[in-house]
């Protein structure tokens, strides 16, 4: 009898340990579930209790063998139910997944860089210039010539002469080097322009992204406005039913609710418009515009300290400004090339000759070009190159003035928006919300009239809209300052 009990206890212990191992290794939360289910079975004075200490791996078992089978069967039912629910939820989760891709700010910028037509054109121009550089070796194709004299039956011809030669023209060395310098600086200028347009594209993507977030906030506000108007309509309707409100107040409340419903439609339309504006800038085809957007649910405020002096000192090294500097250098190199056109080109010829009597001879010729028409052929190119230098210098000066103006506007806009947001955070938002709450309670108690309630509602909604407007402006100014400083303050994950 004793051995039989020992065998049962041993079997129970082994079973429990197996369950613990399985649950602890694969699903730790099941240990607690197992203990909870088992510990809540009380049968008269006898208790079936299993306690698992997950930290110390201690096992305490008190069991009544008469009810063991009943308890285990019920536990199996509980576990079956648990696994069934888990499987159902997992299947539901899998069915809710969409096949659409997620477009983050970073991936949107990457896609736009790959598909933007202006950037593609610039890339082609860079490749074109690189091809031009490779082809400018200073050597033209050699000329192979063949000549023959004494053809025919003329009595004056006593021999038949043949001549075979090859001629190579060589440019003056400085012509090739100066032209290559001009092409190289032109390539560097185009590469800087490419980087500048990439920064501009990044700025546009981020702005559209924040505008999409703003559109969502406006939709949330419109939904909130509709909810408030519905509550107001219910309150006015109750008062009207009891004779405490007029028909005019009821109609105004209905109009307010209808206008709130229209605001939802308008906000939804604006949000979709912002969404497709983003898609168009990315360069997605109509068939590709099936992407979901991943972004924070709200426009967030992040206090960022930016020094005006630092921005003003760093914008001169922007790619757009440096590109204009390289244009000046390229124009100067081209003028030098045009001036070197005065120097002659050389030619070298090698030939073999057969005089018709079997006698053969070899020789060479050296020649050079004489710039007799330099004044007509090259002076115009020099004047053109000089004018290009002046134009490039003025463009550089214009770019500096424009950049400084844009930096000043962006920084002062950032500073003003930051101050406005601070005032809203410190009091305006909470005060307007509290005003609406108190006014609503006062109207329900008959202490405040309907017009004051409507005014409180408009104040609350207007304050919320202005706050998000300032927040959007704040983010736009930060995004602009990113380009001027070549740093990223927002969406830089």
DSSP strand content:
5-15%
What shape does the CA trace take?
A: elongated
Major beta-sheet overview? 4 strands, antiparallel
Count of discrete domains: 2
Element string (H = helix, E = strand): HHEEEEHEHHEEHHEHHEEHHH
Q: What strand order characterises the main sheet?
A: 6-7-9-10
CATH architecture of the largest domain: Up-down Bundle
Per DSSP E runs of 2 or more residues, the count of β-strands stands at 10
Distance linking N and C termini: 70 Å
The CATH superfamily of the largest domain is Outer membrane efflux proteins (OEP)
Poorly predicted runs are 18-68, 76-100
CATH hierarchy, class of the largest domain: Mainly Alpha
Helix fraction by DSSP (H/I, runs of at least 4): 55-70%
Core attributes:
single chain, 493 residues, alpha+beta, Outer membrane efflux proteins (OEP), 11% strand
Structure description:
The chain folds into two domains: 2-92, no CATH class; 105-137 and 185-342 and 392-485, Up-down Bundle (Outer membrane efflux proteins (OEP)). The strands form four sheets. The chain has a four-stranded antiparallel β-sheet, with no helix packed on it. It has helices at 2-26, 29-39, 65-95, 105-115, 117-135, 173-241, 247-282, 308-314, 319-339, 374-377, 379-444, 450-485; strands at 42-43, 46-47, 49-53, 58-62, 102-103, 143-149, 161-170, 292-293, 346-354, 360-368. It has 493 residues and is an alpha+beta fold. The protein contains twelve helices and ten strands.
């Amino acid at each position: 009898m004793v051995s039989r009990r020992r065998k049962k206890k041993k079997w129970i212990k082994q079973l429990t340990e197996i369950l613990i191992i399985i649950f602890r290794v694969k699903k730790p939360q099941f240990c607690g579930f197992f203990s909870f289910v088992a510990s809540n079975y009380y049968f008269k004075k006898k208790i079936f209790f299993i306690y698992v200490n997950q930290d110390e791996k201690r096992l305490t078992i008190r069991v009544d063998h008469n009810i063991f089978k009943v308890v285990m069967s019920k536990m199996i039912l509980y576990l079956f139910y648990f696994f069934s629910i888990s499987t159902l939820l997992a299947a539901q989760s899998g069915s809710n997944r969409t096949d659409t891709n997620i477009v983050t700010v970073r991936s949107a910028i990457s896609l736009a860089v790959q598909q933007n037509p202006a950037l593609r054109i610039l890339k082609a121009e860079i490749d074109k210039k690189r091809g031009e550089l490779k082809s400018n070796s200073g050597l033209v194709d050699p000329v192979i010539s063949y000549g023959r004299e004494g053809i025919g039956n003329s009595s004056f011809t006593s021999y038949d002469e043949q001549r075979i030669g090859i001629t190579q023209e060589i440019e003056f060395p400085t012509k090739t080097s100066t032209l290559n310098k001009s092409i190289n600086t032109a390539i560097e200028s185009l590469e800087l322009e490419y980087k500048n347009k990439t920064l501009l594209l990044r700025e546009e993507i981020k702005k559209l992204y924040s505008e999409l977030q703003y559109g969502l906030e406006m939709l949330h506000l419109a939904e909130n406005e509709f909810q408030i108007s519905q509550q107001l309509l219910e309150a006015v309707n109750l008062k009207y039913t009891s004779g405490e409100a007029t028909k005019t107040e009821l109609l105004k409340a209905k109009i307010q609710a209808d206008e709130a419903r229209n605001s939802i439609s308008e906000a939804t339309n604006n949000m979709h418009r912002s969404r497709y504006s983003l898609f168009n800038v990315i360069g997605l085809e109509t068939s590709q515009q099936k992407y979901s957007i991943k972004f924070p649910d709200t426009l967030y405020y992040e206090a960022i300290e930016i020094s005006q002096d630092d921005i003003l000192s760093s914008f001169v090294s922007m790619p757009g400004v440096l590109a204009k500097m390289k244009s000046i250098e390229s124009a100067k190199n081209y003028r030098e090339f045009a001036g070197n056109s005065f120097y002659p080109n050389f030619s070298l010829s090698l030939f073999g000759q057969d005089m018709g009597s079997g006698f053969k001879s070899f020789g060479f010729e050296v020649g050079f070009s004489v710039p007799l028409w330099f004044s007509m052929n090259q002076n115009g190119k020099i004047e053109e190159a000089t004018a290009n230098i002046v134009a490039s210098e003025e463009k550089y000066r214009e770019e500096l003035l424009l950049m400084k103006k844009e930096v000043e506007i962006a920084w002062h806009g950032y500073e003003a928006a930051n101050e406005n947001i601070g005032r809203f955070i410190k009091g305006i938002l909470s005060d307007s919300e509290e005003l609406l709450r108190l006014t609503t309670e006062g109207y329900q108690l008959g202490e405040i009239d309907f017009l004051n309630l409507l005014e409180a509602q408009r104040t609350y909604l207007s304050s919320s809209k202005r706050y998000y407007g300032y927040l959007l402006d704040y983010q736009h100014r930060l995004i602009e300052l990113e380009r001027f400083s070549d740093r990223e303050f927002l969406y830089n994950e």
